[in-house]
Amino acid sequence: MSAPDTDLFFGMDGTDGTDAPGTDDTGARRRPEDGGGNVPMSVTVRVPAKVNVQLAVGGLRPDGFHDLANVFLAVGLYDEITVTPTAPTEGPRVTCSGPDTHHVPLDRSNLALRAVDALALRHGISPDVHVHIDKDIPVAGGMAGGSADAAGALLACDTLWGTRTPREELLDICAELGSDVPFSLVGGAALGRGRGEVLTPLEVGGTFHWVFAVADGGLSTPAVYRECDRLRERRGTGSGVDDVPAPEASPVLLAALRSGDARLLAANLSNDLQPAAVSLLPSLDETLAVGREAGALAALVSGSGPTCAFLAEDPASASDIAVALRDADVCRDARTATSPAPGATVLRAAV
Ligand SMILES: C[C@@](CO)(OP(=O)(O)O)[C@H](O)COP(=O)(O)OP(=O)(O)OC[C@H]1O[C@@H](n2ccc(N)nc2=O)[C@H](O)[C@@H]1O
Ligand SMILES: Nc1ncnc2c1ncn2[C@@H]1O[C@H](COP(=O)(O)OP(=O)(O)O)[C@@H](O)[C@H]1O
Predict the structure, then answer these.
(1) Where is this region: Disordered (predicted)?
(2) Is the pLDDT of residue 2 over 60?
(3) Residue 5: inside a domain
C-alpha cells in the first residue's frame, strides 16, 4: 500500500448515502435563506491517533521548542468531532463523551474550540458552533488526542461554513495550534521536521498491528521534554541546540515503513523521549516488559507517553499481547489497532 494521497482525506468517504437528490457531493442540502449556498446543519469528522515510530529530539531552541525528526504513523483509534450551529447569543461551546471525558477541558482552552476560533477569525465569521467530541483516544497519553480534536474541528467547521479553506492554509492554522496538529489532519505516515509541523508524506507498504497499553494517568508533554533536557544536562552532554546533534530520520526505518516489514520496523523503532517518560513514571518499564514477554516484536513509549506501544507480528499475536497486559494489571486498558490510518475525514454532513 502506498502512502495515502493526503487530499483524499479532506473529503467524504462516500459511504453514507449522501448522494441523495437535492444534495451536493458533501451531502449538504440547499437552504433558501442561504441564498442558494449549500450549508449542512451538522458535520461529523473522524480523526486518528498517532504513534511515533521514530522520535529524534534535538537541542532546546531559544523559543522553548526542540527540533525533531518525528516519524508519525496514524493508527486506527479515532475521535469523532461533530459541529452544529448555535444561536449567535449562545456562542461556541464544547461537550465530550467517552471514558476520558473528565480529563478534557470544556472551556475555551479546549484545542477543538481554539481551532474553531482560529478558522472563524481567518474568515471573519462568528464562531457560533457546538462542538461535540466523541473521544476514544486516551487523553494526555502521547497519542495526540487533543491535536486530533483540533484538526477535526477545523475540517468540520470548514465544511459546515462552506469556507473551502485551501489545504495549505488549513495546515498553517494547524501548525499555529500545535506541533502535532498538521499530522492529525493529514494522517497516513509522515516525517515531521522543525518542531514536528513541517510534514513530508511517507510511503507505507503494508499494515502494521499494534497494541496500546493505556496508563491510568497522563504525562504532560512540556514536562517530558523538560525531563529529557534535565537528563541530558545530568549526563554532562548539554541540552542546547549546539550540544545535541541535529535530529535525522533513520533511512532503515523509512525503508521498513516502505516495505511493510514489521520485523525490520521493530528493530528500528526509537524514541528519545522514552528515558524521560520512564524517569517520570518508572512503572512504564514493567508495562514494556510484560508486552515484550507476551511476544511483541518491539515495545516503546508512544511519544511523550505514558501510553506504551507494542508492535505485533499479526492480529492473533496482538490479541495475545493485549490479554497479557490486561491480566498483568499494568495498564488501565489494552487496545489493538492497525496502521496506517487515514487523516481527518468527513463522515457525515447532515441537514
Ligand atoms: C511529543 C509529541 C510527539 O509527537 O507529541 P505527544 O507524544 O505529546 O502527543 C509532540 O512533539 C508534542 O506536540 P504537541 O503536543 O502538539 O506540542 P505543542 O503543543 O506544540 O507544544 C507543547 C510543549 O511541548 C514542548 N515541545 C513541543 C514540540 C517540540 N518540538 N518541542 C518541544 O519542546 C514545548 O515545551 C511546548 O511548549
Ligand atoms: N480536545 C482535547 N482533548 C484532549 N485534551 C485536550 C483537549 N483540549 C485541550 N486538551 C489538553 O491537552 C492536554 C494533552 O492532551 P492530549 O493531546 O490528549 O495528549 P498528548 O499531548 O499526550 O498527546 C490534556 O491534558 C488537556 O488538558
Answers:
(1) 1-42
(2) no
(3) no
